[in-house]
Amino acid sequence: MSKPTIGFIGLGLMGGNMVENLQKRGYHVNVMDLNQAAVDAVLARGNATQFSSGKELAAASDVVELCLTTSEVVEKVIYGDTGVLAGIKEGATLIDFGTSIPASTRKIGADLAAKNVGMIDAPLGRTPAHAKDGLLNIMAAGDLDTFNAVKPLLEEQGENVFHLGALGAGHTTKLINNFMGMTTVATMSQAFAVAKLAGVDGQQLFDIMSAGPSNSPFMQFCKFYAVDGEEKLGFSVANANKDLGYFLEMVKDLGTESLIAQGTSTNLQAAVDAGLAQNDVPVIFDYFTKLTK
Prior knowledge:
Blueprint: E1 6-9, H1 13-24, E2 29-32, H2 36-44, E3 48-50, H3 54-59, E4 63-66, H4 71-78, H5 84-87, E5 93-96, H6 102-113, E6 118-121, E7 124-125, H7 128-132, E8 136-140, H8 144-157, E9 158-163, H9 169-198, H10 202-209, H11 217-226, H12 237-253, H13 259-276, H14 284-290
Parallel strand pairs: 1-2, 1-4, 2-3, 4-5, 5-6, 8-9
Antiparallel strand pairs: 7-8
């Protein structure tokens, strides 16, 4: 069987590597991004076409994939006279790999369904390096028949592909995952900062904590920065701050609250205000070491 033509919007570090993986696997890709250099890198590999509007890209694609930064950007790409919704073909599928607000995802899904177009929300785990090799963790959700139809494609992009239920469940799970992960990183980073302020050796603190149940890859990333001065997580304070804001919006929609998430969000925003937005999340250690009462 011939491979579907993939329309891909969003050629950042993750998206660009995902497209490279698709090209290596023989897919023709239709691409769109504001960064012309990122588009040129795709075109140079061949078997690719550049588009300047979501409408035209969608009309020329069997599956449209998004790897964008925020729900606001996703909605901007979907709606409007030149948006994806205006051009997408009946029977096509849209896959959103970003981290979005579940309520927004469900609204888009309903509007696509009215045109007989399927949607899968499929936020990602792991790193851009994994994306280049098709080894991502993919938290997919949506109608089961739609999921099964695109599962072979997802399995060329991810090593572990999960189906989590109805549309929006993927984004819900990703926000919960990032709430847990970023709260852990913020907590551990402040632990190293307090140790430094108290004159406790960071390496010794790590040796003690990592010998017990607190040990985790997140602790390793925190130690890499707090002790070794190296940024290795590959996830920015700005992205973490955005995701915690989405988590808080989601729990509000659910009629509950999270004081823990509020605390993490407050610290992440303070780190952004301190000029650390584009640094790895463990660099929040610097904010904590300078924090005064």
